[in-house]
Each structure stands twice: as C-alpha cells, then as structure tokens.
Amino acid sequence: MRGERSHIGAEFDQRAATYDTSAMHRWQARQAVGLATPRPSTWVLDVATGTGLAAREAAGLTGGDGRVVGVDLSPGMLRVARERSPGNCSYAVADAHRLPFGADRFDLVLCVVGLPYLDAPAAMREWVRVARPGAAIVFTVPRAEGVSVNHLMGQSAQAEGIDLPDPHAKLGTTHRLRELAGSLDLEVEDIQPIVWVDPEPLDDPAEIWQRALNYGFADPLHTADPIAREQARRRFIEQAEGHHPRQDLFLARFALPAVT
User: Fold this and answer.
1) N or C: which end of the chain has fewer CB within 10 A?
2) Distance between alpha carbon 68 and the CA centroid of its chain, in Å?
C-alpha cells in the first residue's frame, strides 16, 4: 500500500502544472466548500488537497482568524498550492492515513476528489481523530459506475472477455456511505447526488487509456492475453473519440457527535 501511495504521489507531481485547468476539479471544490460553509475563525483540514483548490475556496470564508491546512502526497502539487494561496493557508506533505497533527484540532475536514485513492475507513478514522467534537467531514466520491470513462473502458475490455471491476462500487451508493458513517459513529447530515458533464470531449483517448493502466481496477488487463488487451485498447479509443466525460458523484457531509 505504501508503494502504491508513492506511485500516486509521483503521478500527481507530473500533473501539477496543469491540474487547475480542469473545470471539473474546480467545480467539485466549489461544491464541497459550498456544502461545508466554513465560518470565520474555522480551522479547516483539506485532505488530498492537490493544488489547494478547495483550500483556497475555504480560506476566503474563514477570515484572518481562521486557518486552512492542506495535506497531500505530491510535493509538486503542494508547490503550486503554496504559490497560489492566501496567507491563512499552509501545506504539508503527509499521508491521509497518518496525519502529523494532534487530536481535536480541526473544525472541518474536506476531501475533494481524493477518497477513491485512499483506504476510506482507515483514512476517515484518522480524520475523526484530529477533528473536534461536532466537526464536519465533507467529501466527494464517485457513484457506482459513475465515471463514464471507466465505464467505457470496462465495456471495451468486456467485449474481449476481460472483466474489470468497478473501482467505485465499494463506496458509491448511499447505503455504503451510511454504513461507513455508522462504523465510525458519525452522523450523516447530507448525501446528495451531483453530476458533471465535461463541455469538452476527450482530447487524447490513447493517453487516458495508458494512464488508467496505473490504477488497481485495470490489473486484469496486465495479465490478459496481449492480443485481447490490444483489441480492447483499440475499441476504447474508437468509442471514446468525441466522448464528453461524465461523472455522477455523491457530495456528502458527516459530523462528529457534539459534546453534550
């Protein structure tokens, strides 16, 4: 797992310079901060902060007495975040599963886009540790079969007899999210579906396919017959040409019990 996380950090280092150009990433950050509604003087932890898109949104609402701390595995992403953030933001290279903070420190925990890359129960248990009683945890997560590019990839592989799992089946239903909250003694305050359809079509399906091979759900392709794998790749590129990516997501807000 540690090696996989290092690989993820290195991949996002390569994407740091252009990450903010994604309208979908900016939109998710706005959606999450809008549900979180940080108030002046709030202390916010932004997990898997990337280039700080959500951190920067939150910082504008916390005021001079508030603080936003972002953590990420990618030093390259954090360099961009530091360059573009106001003075009440700070950043640290850290694993979301092992945070370098004491208990009861934050009023709000955000995680935008990042949860599919994490062991969600283990990571969220750590977020609970560093959050104060009554704190909110707000995050986005794809719905089951909710990422259209992954769905196209699965269909293309299936046509060649290669079964790819849905990487978002484990968390991508309201039932699973409520189970997760219950296992951590968290209150479910809101779970709402949101949808993003990219106004621009995929510009390089071949590159998208190649990048997806780095993720665990694509492991069956690595051991498949090379001819079948190549046929699946060609089928995906053909079907993805001109495709407008769609993401069906959940935007969720959990809360720690307040002190009574």
Assistant:
1) C
2) 18
Q: Where are the domains of the chain?
A: 2-144+165-196+244-255
Q: Which long-range contacts (CB under 8 A, 24 or more apart) does 233-240 make?
A: 233/156, 233/206, 233/209, 235/156, 235/159, 235/160, 236/152, 236/153, 236/156, 236/157, 236/205, 236/209, 237/205, 237/206, 237/209, 239/152, 239/155, 239/156, 240/149, 240/152, 240/202, 240/205, 240/208, 240/209
Contact 157, 220 (CB under 8 A): yes
pLDDT higher than 60, residue 3:
no
Fold of 2-144+165-196+244-255: Rossmann fold (3.40.50)
Mean pLDDT of the 1-12 span? 58
For 221, the token pair is 């392709």
pLDDT of residue 7: 62
With b for 16 or more beta-carbon neighbours within 10 A and e for fewer, the 199-226 pattern comes to: eeebeebeebbeebeebebbeebeebee
